[in-house]
Amino acid sequence: MTRPPTAAQRRIIDAADPRTGRISGSAAQLTRLVVLKLAFRHPRPPHDHFLTPAGHRLREAGPEPDGPATPPAESPAATPPQAASDGVFTARLGGEPGTVASPARAREVRTAWQGLLEIRRMTSPGGATDRPCAWERSRLTHAAALALEAAGCLPASGDTTPGYRVSDTPQPEAVAVHHPDPAGLAACAAALQQAGWQVSEHAAARGGGRYLLASPRRA
What we know:
Helix content: 25-40%
Mean pLDDT: 82
Strand content: 5-15%
Oligomer: single chain
Largest sheet: 4 strands, antiparallel
Number of strands: 7
Shape: globular
Order of helices and strands: HEHEEHHHHEEHEE
Number of domains: 2
Structural class: alpha+beta
């Protein structure tokens, strides 16, 4: 059984930046938190450390003197957001069965989005975070879906609950975003534009409503 964090490690967790989850401490303390899977070391310089979703949950739950923290699953943000392949986190394209909004999911999305912004900062000229990076351009549907969910847009759940759906298109560097509600489609357009995507609205063939065509903005 994984032992709970020590008092010193717990102080590091409690002192984390509430928005980004960035933490600071000695090398040994940070390494131990990574071993406990309560934090991760960012793969790019300056290799700062951030709380995982499990670390965020522990911080927000407050002290738990009666027992150890539940051993968390591997951090989704230790690698780029969509790259987690173990089911812990993946961007929701819309149509997945059983999709529900929850505080835990919101924390995971926030952590993944902050990790993506950090990748933008470290890989873009001048540290710009206002437009998609190369990682996003190589994973268009998942990058667009993460931007939508991080902005508060809700994906479709199964075949019944309305919401956005993101899909590939034959066009290079472009995805399609569908939403049955015109207001919902407009909200998706605004969210993508805010995240640095170029968006245009089109009419689907054969009376299929309207959809968005979105591509990463380069400048």
